[in-house]
Amino acid sequence: MIDEFLARKLSDVDEAVRKAAAIEIMPRFRRLADHEVDEKSGPHDLVTDADRKAEEYLTQALTRLLPGSAVVGEEAVHADPGVYGALRADAPVWIVDPVDGTRQFVHGEPEFCTLVALAHRGELLASWTFAPALEEMSTAVRGQGAYVNGERILSGSPDPGAELRVATAHPLYTTEAERRVLARLDVPGVASRACGSAGLEYLKVARGEMDGLAFNWPSAWDHAAGLLLVAEAGGSQSTVDGVPFRVDRDNALPFAVGRDEATAVRIRELLRG
């Protein structure tokens, strides 16, 4: 069932993601009313009507395209944490972040995206990263490469001796202890900065515009699409215990992503201290 879907229906998913953005997200971009923005866990953790409506649209569209599949969406999990358990179940699961970079979206900045990934028994099979305000659709299918607007991308490797450009979890969303661990990257030869939209940071690594990432939160909707995109572009990733991050298990955190294996290993070893 999954193989047939991947062979015949990928363009339908692409269309569903684009329609969700066209119907529910972009009409609200730079037009949000105060009552359309709420806080979840605090003033920096925002949710909008665009997040909620786009996730509802995608949940209906994606399960219709693949009968028997489940959806793990950011807003659904916020409402019912038990939804996350679908990642460990036997059915294929769609992992959805309707607006990744909600803070940027609320502020009228174009660097946000919709993230969708398809996984089965913990294996990432396909992903879509759509930045509607930037008019970029990035896709990946396991074993078939990574693409932006239909053109294949490769992450490559940093120039020998070049300073590594690394994006890390934003300090607004980290504890003091987590910040101390991430500060281990503040060494000669590494230039670190706080990340924006996680999905777009993964895209920068897949394109070779950034060398690596260091993240310390596990939410599958932030990482699934980007992890497959980077892997299919030639990149690598692993948690601090030296094994790959997976969406269907508890992971040792933080984890490192690199545009090649050597970069991911270097970031991981710095994080381990």
Question: What structural class do you assign from the helix and strand content?
Answer: alpha+beta
How many β-strand runs?
A: 14
Q: Can you identify the CATH class of the largest domain?
A: Alpha Beta
Mean pLDDT: 96
What is the H level of CATH, i.e. the homologous superfamily of the largest domain?
Fructose-1,6-Bisphosphatase, subunit A, domain 1
Put simply, the count of helices is 9
- What would the principal axes of the Cα set say about the shape? globular
SSE pattern = HHEEHEHEHEEEEEEHEHEHEEH
CATH hierarchy: architecture of the largest domain: 2-Layer Sandwich
Extract low-pLDDT stretches: none
The end-to-end distance, rounded to whole angstroms, is 45 Å
| Largest β sheet strand count, sense and barrel closure | 7 strands, mixed
Q: Please tell me how large the radius of gyration is.
A: 18 Å
Number of domains: 2
Helical amount among residues, as a percent range?
Answer: 25-40%
Indicate the CATH topology of the largest domain: Fructose-1,6-Bisphosphatase, Chain A, domain 1
Strand order of the largest sheet: 3-4-5-6-7-8-9
- In percent, how much strand structure appears in the residues? 25-35%
Topology diagram in text:
Elements: H1 2-8, H2 10-25, E1 37-42, E2 45-48, H3 49-65, E3 70-73, H4 74-79, E4 93-100, H5 102-106, E5 113-120, E6 123-131, E7 136-141, E8 145-148, E9 151-153, E10 164-168, H6 176-182, E11 190-194, H7 198-207, E12 212-215, H8 220-233, E13 236-239, E14 255-258, H9 261-272
Helix pairs in contact: 2-3, 7-8
